[in-house]
Structure formats: C-alpha cells, structure tokens
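Deliverable D5.2: sample structural annotation.
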Amino acid sequence: MSIYHALESSPLLTVFLVVAAGTALGAVRFGPLRFGAAGALFTGLVLGALDPALGKGLALLQTLGLALFVYTVGLAAGSTFVRDLRRQYPLMLVGIGTLIAATAAAGLAGIALGVDGPMIAGAFTGAQTSTPALAAASEAAGSSEPAVAYSLAYPIGVIVSILAVAAVAGRAWPARHDQGGNSAEGLDAASVLVSKETSLCEVPGYADQRVRLSYLERNDEVRVVRPDEVLRQGDRVLVVGQRADMEVAANYLGAGLDQHLAHDRTYVDFRRIVVSNRAVVGHTISELDMPGRFGGVITRVRRGDVDLLGRDDLTLEYGDRVLAVVPRPRLRAVRAFLGDSERKISEVDALTMGIGMALGLAAGLIKIPLPGGGTFGLGAAAGPLVVGMVLGALERTGPAVWGMPRAANLTVRQLGLLFFLATVGLSSGDDFAAAAWSATGLKVGVIAIAVTAVTAAAFLGGGRLLGLSAARTCGAFAGVVGQPAILDFANSRVTDDRIESGYAALFALGIIVKLVLVQVLVGL
C-alpha cells in the first residue's frame, strides 16, 4: 500500500499528520515572523497540492474545528468586550472606520486588477489574518478561492503589519487621553506606619479601587483591615496596588517600614487559592463578602500570567488564583469555600459547552432577508462567536456557569483552530498550486499590500489623533488585525500594559466587523 493510498483511506490520520507537521513549521522563526497555527494551513496546502484526493470528505471536521475555535474566543472575550465598550469606544470607532477603509481598498484594488469577489475577499481575510472571516468568505462563495487567496496574502499581512509596528512602537508622541501603564512595575506591597487618623475612603486610590489594604497591626494585635476601618496614628498597615498608586497611598498615610507585616503569620495568614467551586465562579469579589464571611480580604487575583488587583467589581473565573488574607483559623474554611482543586479547573463542563455550541450553530442557520432578494446569515463562523460573547458577558445564569477554565479554553481553542486550518489547506491545495505562481497570485499580493498599508496608516494615525499612547495604539492595531505575532512583537519592543489592553479591546470587535464586511466583498 502506497503512502498516498494509506492517507486517502484514513482522513483522520492525514489531518493529524498535517497538524503535527504544521505545528513544527509554525514554531520556526523567520526573523520577527512566526506562522504559529497557520503552519497547519501551509502544510495542508502542500500535501493537498500533491494529492487533491486527500482533501475530500473533511467538511464536517472543518466546521467543527471552526465552531470550537470561535466559540471559545467568544467566551473569553465576552466580558472584556462589554467592559471595554464603555471605556474605549473612541478607539473602537477608529477600528471600525479602519476596517471599512481597508475593505474599500481591497474592493477598489481588486476591481482595478480584474480579480473576482471571492478572491478579493480571501485576499482581505489573509491580509487581516482572520480565520473566522475566511470561513465566512468560503461559506458565502461556496468555493476554495477565498482559502487560496488567504494563504497567498497571509504572510504579506503579517510582515507589513510588523514593519508598521516596528516604526511606531516605543515612540513618545503626545498621549493626552491615555493613562500611563505600569506593567513593568506590576503589583507591589508596602508596610506603612500611619501618622494621622484617617478613614479608608480618604486614602488616595482606595475609594476607586486602585489600592487595597490587608494587614493591620494595632497595640501589638494583628488582624485584617475592615472595610469601614478608621486608621489611627501609630497603626501599621499593608498597602497593595500598582507601584505608582501604592506609593501615593503610602505617602499619604505616613512613613514606610522596613518590617513587612505579612512576614508574621501568627494570627493572620495568606494563601494563593485556586477558584474551582462553581458556586463562586461568575460572582464578583464584593458578592463573596469575604469580610463578612471570614473576616478576610482578597488583595490579588492571578489570571493566566497576569496579577490583577482584587477590586470589588472583579468577576472571578475558573482557574483564578486569589490571594486571600484571613485570620489563620479561618484559612481552611476559605479554601473549602473557593474550591482549591486543580483537577476541577482542568475539566470542561460538557453540559454548558454543549448548550452554548448548539445555540451558536443554531444562530448561524438563521437567514435574514435583504433588499434585492439576498439573505444574510451568521453561519458557522459568526454564530458560535456571537453566542459565545453573549454567554461570556453573562458569566452565569442561575446555576449554569458559561465560562470555561482558562487552560481548557486555550486547549480547545487551539485544537479547533488547527483542525480548521489543516482541513482548509488539504481541500484547497490543488487550487493553491495553480494560482501561487500565476498572474492571479501576483494580483492577490498587490491587494494584500494595499489592505495592510491602509489598515496600518488609518489605525495608527487615528490612534495618535485620539491622543492615545503609541503602546496602546500598537496593541489595538494588533487586535484589529487579529494577529498574536504582531502583539508578541510589540511586547518585545515595549513593556507596557496598555499594549495588552488595546489588543483585548479590538480583537473581538475586529472579528465581528470583518465577518460582515467580507460578505460584501464576496458579492463584487
């Protein structure tokens, strides 16, 4: 039996070989460029070009992979999107305007070059490195043309975008409407000797949740600070916050101490505790009432690789590691209350995931009539994404917790993306081989350059006109393009938390806007 015959008889074997080889290719760096998961697409294209029969019968796996990817992205981005909609709407408006301008550039360049709508749409999605938009374009076109153009335009989109970020990142242009970032400093704590009587609400940063107080030593007695505390002269307290905020609060209270109050754990103790109790997940820290239940306080929350201040309005997620400061005898009860189970945070709730995926795929089937006889539908690309964002924003409905542990979310998301890209590559390989070295391939490259150049110029220029920092603008640009490689490159140039904040604000919005715009391009 030949190798090709063995692969043709076992489509799953073929897909997993493409996933493995593509992951290896994606890990290779070409200067600042690394293909990441897109390596599975290019590996699939090569293998599909060698034997077109290998791409047959993969439609179901392709749809499943895409639905899993966009649903988990939606779950993770839902709460962030709603929160940032209130805080960063001017930046979001710039992102929408930029994508409309990039769509116009793609349409005008494609028409001028004589390229049909599906290829223009594929070039646009490749230049924007948007997998969900590619799926929407392929579904609307009913052919492999968008996937072919996507694969040709993808490297151009990443390279030109990275060059644009390299020209901007680190610049100190005026940022009158952008609060400074503190990611290089992170959260810090300081023990302070109080020099005057003051209530907590008078401490700078306490009322607006930029600092937290935990330990209080008074008359040789150590306990946890109460929310209604009135500090007295001679008290010793522990202040937690980002360094700049913490220093302002500490200077207001009095003088710093060489002794760190948290080192004495005789009466008050602290632990990093994993949130795994489903009754806790989806609730804010204030709703847990730690002072009332346990006489304690949550000062920090470790989420992924980031330490967040334990604000009252911070909603807890599966897998969060909270730093709880409580009276020593109550520590066991706090651990039981929060869960503290590593096993549970590695599991997926099949019930809520099944309901969410079913709702998303059902939403994708709905067709809305348009003037002129056409219809518009979310499809398998946008339906699960939109439903995932709604459920992610809700966090929970009664006993149903819609969120997914972060580690599990990332694992499911990665598998879904790899399955989708591998199957798209295998089914499009033959058409890719025919177009790659043709005049059509050159035209697609020109369209990709036009799209990326307009996107970079419009968005980076718009961010500066809004008075935002170069760091936030670069992060948001990576988000609107939807490319983690651009985000990684920006982070390698500048250490600033505004990069991540900008990326999070525009990532989900960029996906949604592209899903709509790409269907306009297909119809050209």
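Annotation notes: The longest strand covers residues 187-194. Residues 406-436 form the longest helix (31 residues).
The annotation will be released with the project's public dataset once the embargo ends.
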